[in-house]
Design a protein that fits this description.
With 255 residues, the chain is α+β, with helices and mostly antiparallel strands.
Length: 255
Amino acid sequence: MRPERSWLIAAAGIVVAAGLGIGVARLSGLALGPPATVTLSYRLTELSTSMPAAQARDVAMRVISRRLASHRLVNRVDPGKTADVAAIEVAHATAAQVAAIVETEGVNLTIWKWVPGEVDEATLSRLGPLAAQYHPGYRPVFTGIEGTMIIHATVGRATRPPGPGVVITFDPDGAELLDLLTKDRGAQTYDTVDNKMAVFVDSRLFEDADVSGEISKGALLLVPDVGTFTVGAAQQLAEGLNAGTIPGKLTRLSK
């Protein structure tokens, strides 16, 4: 066989193989372009009368974005065409995965302080009848610090008592309120009702903490008042706090 003919046959084989390779890539669905983006829209309904629809949507958008980010999903959450709608875009995920994360049930954290007085009906309806029994003669007053201000929650280590704890990091608004609260509580006589900071998870008093000093960095370590955490229980609470709570009900408008 002549040398030039051998070269032509080899070159033809390379071209055929390359063509087959492109065909296989197309048939197998390999990503030859930009990754697909999942787009979903939600309407926020059953809102509290005390919160305007646009404000509730802004809170819901922050919570939704945090839910997705806690699963390491790159996301964009924007206002929809009306004041009660949020539009979501997520890369590298399926619609079913996004919906399962967005529509999950989270837990709500709120922080209160005790002041002398009787518990009013609005507080009782929010925290339950036990709110009037924790410290007779004192009532819980909401400090404005809540779960929507949490940037991230993760499992950490506590020293007293030794074992797992949940570390929560607040956004600038939450950090500022926590600084003011702990400065005020820390100035009171230690281990008195006036010195305590009450951390509620949903309507349960999770920790009635004595405040030893100002917390200025926006991070708080949670441990239960009764008993100790297991790693599993701490992880469950961290996941619930990362999921957060929506100020209303989300209804999916697209699939």
